Amino acid sequence: QVHVVESGGGLVQPGGSLRLSCAASGFIFSRYAMRWYRQAPGKERELVAGIGTISKITNYADFVKGRFTISRDNAKNTVYLQMNSLKPEDTGVYLCVAIWGDFNHWGQGTQVTVSS
Q: Strands 10-12 and 110-114: what pairing?
């Protein structure tokens, strides 16, 4: 059975940091590219960052470049999103997705709230 579970969200002040984790099971994790998306209330879901499989090539949305870092540990079937210098506009539900061809496995998301 496939499971994708995000964790690590919470309430943080502007300028603070959080580290999100996405733990996967039930499929061959190392074959899948991994991405983080976010969705704020009233807004469309947007891509935050992605990471390849063995090569671990990364890509970032312009609005997080220099602040967020995506990484993966294939031995632990986990992908991470280190978020620094957080801004109120980073508030939203952060979702993890595993992608391999036509196969997509989404998690339920973790809430990140940046507020003083």
A: parallel
Residue with tokens 């671990």: 56
Q: What angle do CA 107, 68, 7 make, to 5 degrees?
A: 30
Q: How far apart are CA 99 and CA 90, in angstroms?
A: 24
Hey, what amino acid is at 69?
T
Q: What is the pLDDT of residue 56?
A: 80
d(CA 81, CA 108): 16
Give the chain's length. Answer: 116
Residue pointed to by tokens 């995000």 = 6
Average pLDDT over residues 10-25: 98
